[in-house]
Each structure stands twice: as C-alpha cells, then as structure tokens.
Amino acid sequence: MLAIKSDTFNQSLLDYLQRSMTPFHATANLVEELKQAGFIGLEEGEAWQLEAGGRYYLVRSDASVIAFVLPKKASLAETGLRMVGAHTDSPCLKVKPQPERVKQGYFQLGVEVYGGALLNPWFDRDLSLAGRVSYIDAKGELNHCLVDFQDPIAVVPSLAIHLDREANKERTVNPQLHLPLVLAIAPENSEPKLRELLLEQVRLQDSDAERVLDFDLCCYDTNPPAMIGLQRQFIASARLDNLLSCFVGLQAMLGALEQGDDDQGMLLVCNDHEEVGSVSDSGADGPMLEQLLERLVPEIEPRQRMLANSVMISADNAHGIHPNYSDKHDANHGPLLNAGPVIKINANQRYATNSKTSALFRQLAELEQVPVQAFTVRTDMACGSTIGPLTAARIGVPTLDIGVPTFGMHSIRELAGSEDAYNLFRVLQRFYQG
C-alpha cells in the first residue's frame, strides 16, 4: 500500500517539475493547487478581512508565495505557527536584456549565469525558454504574462575534442564566451529580434498585445523528469533543488488539512532568490514573511507569544554521498539516497538546526516510522547555506534545516531517491498537525 501511495505521489511531483520551468511558473502552479483546496488570494495593497479557520495565500513579485491557515478556535498567540520554508528558484542561464547577436552566420542569445550553476552539463542539451513578459496592449495598458516556448529552440554546442585535446582533463567554461545560445542560422541581411519572438508567444494568450517592453527569461532543458534506474529507485529532473521541497511542503499542509486538523496555525513560505543570497523584496532575507506576520497579529505582545510558540522547518536538498567521490564527505555523515530525510547541521550557523529542533524532527520521524540521517560538511570544506538561518534571524523562531539527499546538486539534471520525497511528506504532514 505504501509503495502505491509513493508512486502516485512521485508522479504528481514529476508533473509539477515538468510544468515549473521558472520560479514564476513554479509559483503559479502552487497557487493553482491552493485555489483548488479552497485558499483565498490576498492582495498586499488591500485591507484584509481574515476569519478564524480561514485558508489564505499571497504572492509577491510573481515568484514567491506564502500560504497560511488560521486556527478555528484558539488564537495564533496560543497555537503559534507550524511553518515550512523552501525556495522557488534554481541555478540556470538567464537571457540578457539585449541578448541578440549574429556571429559566423548564427543567431545567438547572450546569457547570464544565475546562482552557483554547474556549467558543463548545460552543453549539448535541447533547451527552451520560459519566463515572464511585460507588454503594452492595444489600449496602451501595461500587462504581464508567463510564456513558455516549450519546443527545443536552442543549444549550447560543445567544442569537439579534436579542437581541445585536454578537454577531459581541465576544460573550463568562460560564461561570456562559451555559453551564448545558438538558435538558428541567421537570415541574410536581417538580425532576428527576441522581442518579436516573444510578442508571438504573448499573442497566443492576448491577441491585443502590441509591443513587448521587457522580459525575465530562463533557459531550461526540455528533457522531462523521469523515474530511472534498474528498479526505478531514482528521480532524475532539473530543479529538484528546490522545487521538490516546495511541492512536498504544500502536499504536507494539504494532507494535514485533510486529516481534519483545524486548530493549528500552519504556514508555507516559498521564497525566490535563495540561490543568489535571498536579499530582495521577496527573498528570505527580505521583509515578506515578517510583514505578513505583523498583519496577522498587529499587537506586539501577542505576536511575540505567537513567535515563541512557533517552529520553522527549512526544507532544502542535502548532499548525498557520491560513490565516486566519497572522500568529499565526512565519513560519519554521508547521507544515502532512499535512506530517509537528512537533518543538516553546521556549528557556524550556516544551517539553523540545534539539538532541540533536531530532536523534534527525530521524534516526528519516529512517529511516522521514517528513518532519519544527519549531514555536516567536512571540517576542511566550506559549507553552503539555506533560507533557514536568514528566516530564523529575521523573525526569531526556532528553526531547523532538513532535506532529501541529492546527487548533482545545481546541475541541469539532478538525482534524488524515489522514496525520499514521500517520506519527507509524511514527516512534514505530522509536523503540521501540531
């Protein structure tokens, strides 16, 4: 029975990953599911009339979303909030503002590297473009919409080994010189315009669109997510870091609500810009969550009580021990795929976990009979970070960092275990139940 449930869960995860090519699309897909579950959208510029037991969400900058559930009977000061945090962005190639160029007869687009991407895997992939476009319509009004070319329209070709005999030893990538996309053989005496191509995409949704003013476009691999391996024990996909956690967090909240839990405050926050430091109006080091909490409980003393009774779980993928590079791990802290979610610990607060928050997660996992692993980076290596420490510092809530073990993090195609997402869902659903 458990295998059937996890298979169904994983298929829904694959579908979400396939439809979420950019942070904008990832957020829009989360919002669509929230609406189907009865959540009401809030506008930050309007007055709110919130009701006990209500389900609400708000979106900022089209790429960050907070969903929350108010308790039916008790006050938030009494129940606190059970919070899960994740992020909607992933390392990628983003199209520059004036990207067009024709070189050696080929139409190309210049790109920037967003976040700490592994660059070599981007070569020789069937790439497409998706993102947000701002345009003027026939009435002269400014509008915005999401676009997705869907088809593989671009590629970054590798240099043949005959022209770089040392390629398998020390090939380095100069992102300015080596990453411009190849889209077509350029027409003679004509340079294609990206805005014209975008206008065609926009007009599929709004026939009155007249002129594209600006855009925010990401490249993505058109190869779909898949269950792979001899026994289908792995999930292979782009953007597992960290759309897997966004999906799992939402399903856990919805699952807790289906269990009939109506007197525990719950919150899910999925921020943009984690991969570039989280410093933005909608990032975890910005004011979005803090401002929401102030609106939920405007008076200082009850709000402080709410925060004191709250807990935050920052869910972001962990490094699984790679069988070909096991020396990159501490020997006692090498998480295995399909061996349970990972508690992430760092003495220098790159992760927010402490012994109390870690113990809570272990207790919840025991109740669900889910195994738990621990990760700490080698003492002679630098440690990455998450939204966990940033959120904990901004709102003062006990926090821990967890995630599912992953290979190839920040590659164009990452790998996770087929059991881990569902096991994390079970623990987070229990957490939301209070």
UniProtKB/TrEMBL annotation:
It is an enzyme of class 3 (hydrolase). Its EC number is 3.4.11.-. GO terms for biological process: proteolysis. InterPro entries: Peptidase_M18, Peptidase_M18_dom2. GO terms for cellular component: cytoplasm. Pfam families: Peptidase_M18. Keywords: Aminopeptidase, Hydrolase, Metal-binding, Metalloprotease, Protease, Zinc. One of its GO terms (molecular function) is aminopeptidase activity. It comes from the Bacteria. The keyword Transport does not apply. Its cofactor is Zn(2+). Belongs to the peptidase M18 family. This is M18 family aminopeptidase.
